[in-house]
Design a protein that fits this description.
7 strands; 7-stranded parallel sheet; single chain; 9 helices; binds NADP nicotinamide-adenine-dinucleotide phosphate; alpha/beta; 246 residues
Length: 246
């Protein structure tokens, strides 16, 4: 159980982040539902959590901005006194073949996916160091392990998250803070809803379990990594991918 824990889930207005927020709240954590543009959807997530008897609050912040991320974490500490769980989930795609990929497409993806995670870790870890406890969970992707044509920017950002996870895990391990990454495979969300039937079928062929995962599959893994029971696990990358990257 996560009673009394304060959790920040970046990009939890939709998709995987939403499921992580709802799952952590169901286990007793107070959840800060971070969003960038989807205020209404973030509000719906808070309503769902409160209706189930949990505690949550929506807070807007563009995590790619160093100062806005500092304000987000500062607000959480001022309001709740601590921060126990940080889930860096906010992510975007701007897919294109290398020869067509613009500098803007590369920068946007790196800034949100990788720098966004760095920003939040950088600000939250100071408080976790004071507490001598904390759980940091970064959402990578099997694209960061296997690569993916058309995703040079996204794969680089997700591989970067793995390096970030391992380095920070080494720095913070002796202070009771664990840092792990989850690498989802194909998960049913708005991000994958744009795939054509043919692309989806081809993807399913490459998954040993032959079907896409659910947001719940990822959220359950995050909840485990956030729990007491996972206290001796750090610097790891857990693939939630139906066996695709093995
Ligand atoms: P999604 O449905 O597109 O949702 C993305 C979330 O990120 C939204 O809540 C969005 O908030 C938020 N976000 C985007 N830019 C942000 C920013 N600058 N600051 C704060 N929040 C921001 O995506 P998803 O499929 O759930 O993916 C979630 C994570 O899992 C991502 O890191 C993604 O790379 C990773 N992942 C997904 C899959 C998959 O198959 N779906 C596979 C592997 C990894 P707003 O709407 O408010 O902007």
């Amino acid at each position: 159980m996560l009673s009394g824990r304060i959790a920040v889930v970046t990009g939890s207005s939709r998709g995987i982040g939403r499921e992580i927020a709802v799952t952590l709240a169901a286990k007793g954590a107070t959840v800060i539902v971070n969003y960038n543009g989807s205020a209404e959807k973030a509000g719906e997530v808070v309503d769902v959590i409160r209706e189930a008897g949990g505690e949550a609050e929506a807070v807007q912040c563009n995590v790619s901005d160093f100062n806005q991320s500092a304000e987000l974490i500062k607000y959480v500490i001022k309001t709740y006194g601590r921060i126990d769980i940080l889930v860096n989930n906010a992510g975007i795609t701007r897919d294109n073949l290398l020869m067509k990929m613009s500098e803007e497409e590369f920068d946007a993806v790196l800034n949100t996916n990788l720098k966004g995670a760095f920003n939040c870790i950088r600000h939250a870890s100071r408080q976790m160091l004071k507490q001598r406890s904390g759980r940091i969970i970064n959402i990578s992707s099997i694209s960061g392990i296997m690569g993916n044509a058309g995703q040079a920017n996204y794969s680089a950002s997700k591989a970067g998250i793995i390096g970030l996870t391992k380095s920070v895990a080494r720095e913070l391990a002796s202070r009771g803070i664990t840092v792990n990454a989850i690498a989802p495979g194909f998960i049913d969300t708005e991000m994958t809803a744009v795939l054509t039937d043919n692309v989806r079928k081809a993807a399913e062929e490459n998954i040993p379990m032959k079907h896409f995962g659910s947001t719940k599959d990822v959220a359950n893994t995050a909840a485990f990594l956030a729990s007491e029971e996972a206290g001796y696990i750090t610097g790891q990358v857990i693939c939630v991918d139906g066996g695709m990257a093995m």
